UniProtKB/TrEMBL annotation:
Keyword terms: Cell membrane, Membrane, Transmembrane, Transmembrane helix
Protein name: ABC transporter permease
Subcellular localization, as worded in the UniProt entry: Cell membrane
Family: Belongs to the ABC-4 integral membrane protein family.
A GO cellular component entry from the record: plasma membrane
Keyword Transmembrane recorded: yes
One annotated GO molecular function: transmembrane transporter activity
Any Pfam family the entry gives: FtsX
Length: 232
C-alpha cells in the first residue's frame, strides 16, 4: 500500500533501464574482416564469380572505348579495321555502342553472379547459426548483425570488382593490341579507361550488396534461441 504521508515528489523513482552499448563502426569492421579471414576459401569462391562477371563487363566497356577512340580520329583505315573485326557500323555512326547480343550476355553474367552470391551467403548464414545466436544472446541488435553481413559483402565486393574491372580492362587492351597493333595505345583515352573501370567496380560492389541483402535480413531477424538450438 502507498504511504499517504509521502508526497509524489518524495516517492522513490522506478529504476531506469540503461541504453544498450553500441559497438563502434571500427569494431564492426574488424569483426567483419576477421570473419572473412576465417572463411577465406569460401569468400574466395564467392568473390571469383564476381571477378569473372565484372571483368567481362569491363572488357566490353573498354573495348568500346578503344573503338570510339578510333572513330574519333576520323581515319577511314581505322574505321574499316573496326568493321572487319566485327563492329556493326553504319556510314553515319560516330560511336561504337554495345550490341544487343553483348548486352544480353552481360546481363546474364551479372544475373548468374548475383544468384551465386545469394546462394553462398545463405550457406554462410546456415554455418553461422551459433555465432549469430551467441552475438544476439550477448545483446547484439538486429541492425548490428545486418551491418556485419553488409560490411563483409562490401569488402568482398570492392576487392572482387576492383580486380575484375582492372583485369577486364587490361585484357581488352591486349586484345586490341593483337588485332590492331600499337595504334591502340595512341587513340585510347585513359580517362575513358579509368571511367569504365570505375563504373564496372561500382556495378560489382552494388551487385555484391544486393546479393547479400536477403541473407543478411534472414540472419538479423533470427531468434537467439532458434540459432543456438540449430544443429551444425
Amino acid at each position: 500500500m502507498k504511504n499517504p504521508n509521502i508526497s509524489p515528489q518524495e516517492a522513490p523513482k522506478a529504476p531506469t533501464v540503461r541504453r544498450l552499448v553500441v559497438l563502434p563502426f571500427r569494431k564492426s569492421l574488424e569483426i567483419s574482416f576477421q570473419s572473412i579471414r576465417v572463411r577465406f576459401l569460401r569468400s574466395l569462391i564467392t568473390t571469383m564469380s564476381l571477378v569473372l562477371a565484372v571483368s567481362f563487363l569491363s572488357f566490353i566497356n573498354v573495348s568500346n572505348d578503344i573503338a570510339n577512340g578510333f572513330l574519333a580520329a576520323g581515319d577511314p583505315g581505322l574505321r574499316q579495321a573496326l568493321i572487319r573485326s566485327g563492329y556493326d557500323l553504319a556510314p553515319e555512326d560516330t560511336r561504337a555502342d554495345t550490341s544487343p547480343k553483348q548486352q544480353w550476355l552481360v546481363f546474364l553474367s551479372l544475373l548468374v553472379c548475383v544468384v551465386g552470391i545469394v546462394n553462398a551467403q545463405l550457406m554462410a548464414v546456415t554455418e553461422r547459426f551459433r555465432e549469430i545466436g551467441t552475438m544476439k544472446c550477448l545483446g547484439a541488435l538486429d541492425r548490428f548483425v545486418l551491418r556485419l553481413f553488409l560490411l563483409e559483402a562490401g569488402m568482398q565486393g570492392l576487392a572482387g570488382a576492383g580486380i575484375g574491372a582492372l583485369a577486364g580492362g587490361i585484357f581488352a587492351i591486349i586484345n586490341s593490341l593483337i588485332r590492331f597493333g600499337a595504334v591502340t595505345l595512341t587513340h585510347l583515352s585513359w580517362g575513358d579507361f579509368f571511367a569504365s573501370a570505375l563504373m564496372s567496380t561500382g556495378t560489382g560492389c552494388l551487385l555484391s550488396l544486393i546479393g547479400v541483402l536477403y541473407p543478411a535480413m534472414v540472419a538479423a531477424r533470427m531468434q537467439p534461441v532458434e540459432a543456438m538450438r540449430a544443429e551444425q
